[in-house]
Design a protein that fits this description.
This is EAL domain-containing protein. By secondary structure, this protein is of the alpha/beta class. Helix content is 49%, strand content 19%. The chain has eleven helices and nine strands. The chain has an eight-stranded mixed beta barrel, surrounded by six helices. Helix 3 packs parallel to helix 5. The longest helix is centred in the first third of the chain and has 35 residues. The radius of gyration is 21 Å and the shape is globular. The protein binds ligand C2E and magnesium ion (3 copies). The site of ligand C2E has 24 residues, from strand 2, helix 3 and strand 6. The site of one magnesium ion has 2 residues, from strand 6.
């Protein structure tokens, strides 16, 4: 009796496992097809300089335009793409497309805009990342100063020495480096001063509940003060209300992104905003 039950449990698990494996295989096939058949798009979210109120840059955010499901947000496929290694070719496509787009805006005579691209851990530690980026800059003719790479604390944690070297190389190519989702990574602050970065992006979880949550206000103010002490620029993510913006401005925050100014937009809508 017990033995039979054990076998049933076992069969139950193997069935579940092969179902999961099949789902993954299917997802991998669909992502590969998306890569080959222009199934990905970038949306662009403005970054606003608080002092002047001007758009100074934008973040390129990836979406998967699936024939069956429509637009799929990155959180639903990036973790799998990262796990399977597909993030490397997908990330190349993102870098190339964002650089091409920024070059087009320059050619159209628009004021220079910085374009920020999210990197994943796999990409950061890919041996030939610097060469890949150099090739993309050369091919698109985008000045390296116009490209910002966003990294997270967790990508660096535990590899601080290698990070100093890798980021130093990217920095020496003229690229700008930003730490995304800052404050969520539980990392020690001492590594920060050794990294050749320009910008801290305050995670939106600390901005969301301003001004209701006193702790979040203290944390945001603390990150801004820290950034200023370390001579870094600081950008707040997820700014949705004028009250939030006023508080961040008062604390000395340099720039922001968020629905208050604009959601991430498809390229045509973003260009309308640029020309306004
Ligand atoms: P992130 O880099 O922290 O991007 C900010 C996210 O906050 C975006 O979500 C954006 O749409 C959202 N957001 C912006 N303003 C507001 C606001 O005012 N309120 C709220 N509630 N949300 C706001 P999205 O586009 O869904 O991207 C989610 C995450 O996916 C990104 O977080 C980034 O970590 C990742 N991601 C996006 N594109 C790429 C990519 O090309 N490569 C990699 N590796 N990761 C990417
Ligand atoms: Mg980002
Ligand atoms: Mg973020
Ligand atoms: Mg994030």
């Amino acid at each position: 009796q017990a033995k039979a039950q054990g076998r049933n449990t076992y069969r139950f698990f193997t069935d579940a496992m092969s179902r999961a494996a099949q789902l993954h295989l299917n997802l991998e096939r669909r992502l590969r097809r998306a890569l080959e058949q222009r199934g990905f798009v970038l949306h662009y979210q403005p970054q606003i300089d608080i002092a002047s109120g001007r758009m100074v840059g934008c973040e390129a955010l990836l979406r998967w335009n699936d024939p069956e499901e429509g637009l799929i947000p990155p959180n639903r496929f990036i973790p799998f793409a990262e796990e399977s290694g597909l993030i490397v070719p997908i990330g190349d496509w993102v870098l190339e497309t964002a650089c091409q787009q920024a070059r087009k805006w320059l050619d159209a005579g628009l004021p220079p805009l910085l374009v920020a691209v999210n990197l994943s851990a796999r990409q950061l530690w890919q041996a030939d990342l610097p060469e890949r980026i150099a090739a993309i800059l050369k091919q698109t003719g985008l000045p390296p100063q116009s490209l910002e790479l966003e990294l997270t604390e967790s990508m660096i944690m535990g590899h601080e020495a290698q990070a100093v070297e890798r980021l130093g190389l990217l920095r020496s190519m003229g690229l700008r480096l930003a730490i995304d989702d800052f404050g969520t990574g539980y990392s020690s602050l001492s590594y920060l001063k050794n990294l050749p970065i320009e910008v801290l992006k305050i995670d939106q979880s600390f901005v969301r509940n301003i001004p209701q949550d006193r702790n979040d206000m203290e944390i945001s103010a603390g990150i801004i003060a820290l950034a200023r002490k370390l001579n870094l620029k600081v950008l707040a993510e997820g700014v949705e209300t004028p009250e939030q913006l006023a508080f961040l401005a008062e604390q000395g925050c340099d720039s922001y992104q968020g629905y208050l100014f604009s959601r991430p937009l498809p390229v045509e809508a973003f260009e309308k905003l640029l020309l306004r």
